[in-house]
Amino acid sequence: FLFFFQAEDGIRDSVASRGLGDVYKRQEYMGIYSANMDAKGEPQAEAKADKKEGKEEKQEKVEAQEVKKEAVNPPAQEEKKKKKKKKKKKTESKKEESEDKKGGEEIKAKACEHKEDPSKLKEEKKDPKATYTRALDNSIFRKLGNWKEGEYKQTSPPTVTLDSQFPSGIYQTGVIFEYPGPNNYRMANKESKEKEKLFEVDYNALRKAAECHKQVRRFAQAMIRPGKTLIEIATSIENEVRKVIKANKLEAGLAFPCGTSINNCAAHFTANAGDTKVLAHGDVMKVGFGTHVKVLLIDSAFTVAFDPMFDNLLEASKQATMTGVKESGIDARFDEIGERIQETMESHEVEIKGKTYKVHCVKNLNGHLVARYRIHAGKSVPIVKGGPQTKMEEGEIYAIETFGTTGKGHVADDVDTSHYMRNFDGKTAPLRNPKSKALLKLIEDNFGTLAFCRRWVDDLGFEKHFSALKPLVDEGIVKSYPPLSDIVGSYVSQFEHTLLLRPTCKEVLSIADDYQTLFNPYS
What we know:
seven-stranded antiparallel β-sheet, disordered N terminus
């Protein structure tokens, strides 16, 4: 908290004096004889000198008072000062003028105290173009593109909120692709265009969440290096999301915890408190985090590797994900999408430490429909052939993700669960443990039906919460999501995008420079 104190003199100066000075003035005005007057009732020479000195002292007080008022009402006082300067040019007045123009520390402090118009303090603000850069060399990573130079209003690490960067409240549209085949007419169709106007608010919220994801992703790629702990990586990313998007429970914030799944672990791992695992140069780490605005979600992930021997593994999942994005659209069938993804993924081989592996799809992990308040909203997009003939529909949002592995192509629950989520159907049960009741209220107030992790519960002040969490899981009120891993010794890679099936076109919301490298199915 910041406390501002008003000087006592600042209060007294605005009120006419009621001290002894007024008594003497009244006596003189009424003709009452005093020791300072001669026999004729005229002031003596010494008295005249004192009177002159008193006038000068009063004038100095008035000038000081005007300087103090400048911080309260700069425009009005500035005009008075200009008029005064024309009438007389005293040394003290010139000094005050000079200090005001230079933005002396006292004047600046009072201007801030009285909430002066920010336009009056422009000289205190740094030029964003002089210090903010979008460019970032990602050559330390395998299969991640460099961020190109361009207009950018964010610092590194991020300190500027999206609201400050986009005062109009309108956010940049994602990458647009026309629908192929029979849906190609939609781009120019008037009815489709009119439909989109009904959903512009939601589209803009998704774009805001996507902009946050891109900016924090760039920060993450500048920060992630071998030797950092997994908990440091995850918490740094989460904290920057909260800062940039101005997190406020279900208004805006994190859609789920930042995942840092290493090597054979494919998903759903984030470090619990006290975890000391460190990222090594020879690791393959999946980094995935979600952002939301008004509980409209962006889900996107990339894989970090430093050793070139993993290039083909990362390339396989990257191309497979882009194939899934390309094949998705209104009326696209899940079975056909899955078949195309598998063909792309399994056309790759990778040599690791002298042994060659065929890259397999992880059969029991899928892309998924995303809805408000719900990261997995029912429909699943398979990454292997043989899926359902269900079709994608207009207006839906999908997270297209693929997992390539050198292992068995099947993941199972692992240990050290960190991810949890309130059951979406609102299931309740009688709870005897008062701590469980309190924890459930905390979950519903802060996360709703979005995923959360145990670290976040600790951060909210509910420490030693496991005994309160267990009954919620046992009753099915809260569901646990353990880490998902292939066999020990294998490596898994992942890439993921969020796309929106608008009435006129397909909009890929999460794509940016870091994902657009080596392979682009739309070229």
